Write the structure tokens for this entry.
Amino acid sequence: MTRFSTEGRTATGRDLFKDKPKKTEERARDTPTAVQLGVHGRYQIKSGRLSGEYVARAFPKPPTNARGLIAEARGATEEAAIAALHDVIDARESRRTEDRRIDEDSGSAVPSIEEYVEALGQVALSRPQRAMLLALAFAEDGGLTEMRMATAAGYKSHASANRAFAAAGMLVANYLSVETPSSEATNDLGGATLLAFRGEQSNADKPGNWILHPELREAVRSTL
């Protein structure tokens, strides 16, 4: 009886010992390695090994209020996963650039709703700039006069409002790598034409109302 009991304990001990390396290997396989951080263009890259695979993912680059996965790639090594992700991002940017609409009045490229949404989540717009975009996004199809835009943003002069509006356009243009026409060619300041276009003039002394591009109008309504 004693001999049987001793062998039972010994056998159980051997079985447990044999199982431990397998469990350790499984835990090591399932446990993510340290995440490596990098940058590609305007995105933050996070890479590492997850569940036995090398994974690289792109996210909005801090500081930002935007969240969410931009793109993902896998590879046989961490370096291969990162290289594959770079290719995915570059192809995505090329597709976006090719798909941009050309504005008939200014001749400048107009980003898609998707691009505007991403940019609005990334660029640091001031409170007056956001106020102008919101006012224009919820205005009638005829847009707003310069003075009504200035009032919405709390400016005392339409000149100050126009400068702030153009500066907001340049922030978006720089983020999305969109070329803007010179102010001399458009009689407007910098990046304003990336955000909006001018309506018809009521008379020669007053410029037409500012009207947001339809793509930006949808983006502002869903984002700001």
Summary: The chain has two domains: 36-98, 105-222. Residues 1-20, 22-31 have pLDDT under 50 and may be disordered. Residues 105-222 form one domain.
